[in-house]
Each structure stands twice: as structure tokens, then as C-alpha cells.
Amino acid sequence: MQGRGNSMRDTLGVLLAGGAGERLFPLTRDRAKPAVPFGGHYRIIDITLSNCINSGLRRVYILTQYKALSLNRHIREGWTGIVAQELGEFIEILPPMQRVSANWYMGTADAVYQNIYSIGAEQPKHVLILSGDHIYKMDYSKMLEHHVDSGADVTLATLPVRPDEVKRFGVVEVGKNGEVVGFLEKPTSTELRSPFNPEMVDASMGIYIFNTDVLLPALIKDSEDPDSKHDFGHNILPAILGQYKMTAYNFVDENKKETLYWRDVGTLDAYYDANMDVSSVSPMFNLYDASWPMRTRVRQYPPAKFVFGEPGRTGMAINSTISAGCIVSGAVVRNSVLSQDVRINSFSEVDSSIIFSHVDIGRHCRIKRAIIDRDVHIPEGTVIGYDQNEDRRNYFVTPSGLTVVARDYSLYESPVSPEFMRQG
């Protein structure tokens, strides 16, 4: 086995962060999906980038596209300075540059193909393809060691899922020797079972390691196919299956819990549930593990504070995550996540909610099961989350009854509206 530093030295990370994130609308109305806040203190992309740094991967391209201003600023101010540029290390943003195509990124494979010159300039032996919108902890150096030791040309990270969950995943057919022998894209059901766990099915995590001399020709060939979706799971991997040695790497969770933790927070309800877990008494996803630190862009705010302690006007937070700069002034916060610089004024109650940064909640408000976007002012006496019919008149409400309050929400209709689609 190679050491972590040595095994990653010849590896280039390519992090896909350009998705429009329609299912997270209206949170993605003005920002890219990987830039959506998570756990009060972080952005979603911080989780994958922290995995990179903790794995010893210190050359990373981040491919951005839709509404990337806040994401670009977050990366520039929070991440680019932590690597040693004089040693050839970098965390660098690559927007669509149209060097090989007049299009924006047309799929995951096309996004990588359009940056083929940037990849070739670094001359890596291996390319690690990652997604910037999942919540999990993984040591990529262990996956690379498996890739090298097995003599593979391509390695896929797989996650065990129950057979009744396969319709949400790309299913990987894995032989007894660990080699990949087939794919099923979101089947309604399957008789396949994992050689790692005979009660489970192997699902693709969208994490791939390629030998560079295999990846680049495959990308070029795919780019010339007019019928291709230019997607790794749909096109690249099936096209090269059988031509090269392709192995599966069963997910090793660095979260150190009894149950494996991997979450796709691509829907509002899934995003909400993952944040609620962070604020619970015993969260499944541990942000407090010093052996696997989570990094982010740190803004300079004063400490959080809680003021007033008289009957009926006590500033307190229970089972909640409270970020720097917050003031809970004679209000009660329960089971909630507050980002930076939030003020909740007297006699208000916030329960089971996610509050983004720079939100001001007036007096005598009652808020439950809501997500409130940044820079929103909630007027005195506002009630949210108690009457879905009333909420639908003013806000976005999911089928499960989760209320999302965005700035100027009335200007926008829904994630499938023509107006939204024109914005990308």
C-alpha cells in the first residue's frame, strides 16, 4: 500500500459543481446547488472539498456553470489559500471556456471533456471524478490504493442500498472478484445482489477513478457521438465496459457510525432532513470529529448570544445549531439550524426550521418547519408553517408541507415554469 500523500500526488481531482439544482428551487433561484448553506456554518460543496483535503488530494479543478457567483466567491475566499501553490497544489475554478465546443456543459462527461486541455496540462496518472452536492465522509486515498493494487483502469465507488431503493440509483453489477460486469440505470427492481453484502445491491456513488490514458480517449470518442447524453453513467462507462479492467470499490465511511452515511440532498425534503439531523441530540452525520475536520469560508462575526431571561421572554435555543453573529433576543429556538448573523426578536418562536444568514425575525412571530433564505426580514407577528393553505398564498410549500421563504418569491413561480427554465 502507498501512503496517503504519495498515492494522491499523481492524481487530479475534478469536482463537478455546475448543476442547476431545479429540485432545490427556490433555494437555487439565485445560487448554484453546491453553494446552498448546510449545517448553518457550511456550504454543501465544503463537504466534498473537506474530503479532498483530508484524503491528501491537493490538486482540484472545480467545474462551475449555473449562477456561480456566490460559489466562486466562497471558493476563492475560503479554499484557494489553503494549498501550497509553490508545490504545484491548487483548488481552481473552471467555468465553461468553450475551447473545444461552443456549448455550455451538456452533461457530466462533456463538462470534463471541455476541460481536456487543462487536465492534460497537469499530466496526472489518475483522474478522480467527484460531485459537489452530496453529504458524506470518504477517504479517496483508500479508493485510489484499491484502484492501483487491483491493477484497474477504472474504479467506481459503490454504496450498498436495499433492493427496494434501486429505482433511485444507477445499479452496478459486480462480479465475485470485484470487477464491474454491467450497469442498470434506475431499474424498477432487480435480482442482482452485492458480492460485498448478499442482502444489498451495489449503487453507483458517482465517484470514479480513471487512469488518464483511458479517460481522455473515451471522452474524445464520446464527444463525437451525436446520440450520446455525454454522461459518465449513461455513456462513458457502458461504452468502455469489457475493453478495460473496471472494478468496484465498496464505500468505506469515515463518519464512524454503525450505519453508513451518504445523502443526496437534491430535493428540499432531503436537504431539510439532513440539516435537522445535524441539530439533533445524536446526529448521524458528525461535524465534531477532530480527526476528520470540515473546512469552510470563515467570516468574521462576533459570538452568538442569548439575551433576556424574564418569564415569557427568555432568549434560548434547545437542540439547535447556532452560528456566529446570531442574537436570540427573548425568543425561543428549538430543533433548528441558524446560519450566521441571524436575529430573532422577543416573544418569537422558531421550531424545526433552517434560517439562512442575515435574516431578521420580528417580535411575536411563530415559525415551524420552514426554510428562510438569506436577507429576508420577517415582519412582526408573522405566522409560518401552521396553515399550509395560507402559506401557499405567499411562499413555496412542498407536498410534505415544508415552507420555503425566499426573497421576492412572488416574482417566481415554480421550478418547472418557463421563467425558471429560461434562467437555467
Automatic annotation (TrEMBL):
This is Glucose-1-phosphate adenylyltransferase. The record marks 65, 104 as: Could play a key role in the communication between the regulatory and the substrate sites. Homotetramer. It comes from Acidisarcina polymorpha. The keyword Nucleus does not apply. NCBIfam families: glgC, PRK00725.1, PRK00844.1. Pathway: Glycan biosynthesis; glycogen biosynthesis. GO terms for molecular function: ATP binding; glucose-1-phosphate adenylyltransferase activity. It comes from the Bacteria. Involved in the biosynthesis of ADP-glucose, a building block required for the elongation reactions to produce glycogen. Catalyzes the reaction between ATP and alpha-D-glucose 1-phosphate (G1P) to produce pyrophosphate and ADP-Glc. GO terms for biological process: glycogen biosynthetic process. Its EC number is 2.7.7.27. Belongs to the bacterial/plant glucose-1-phosphate adenylyltransferase family.
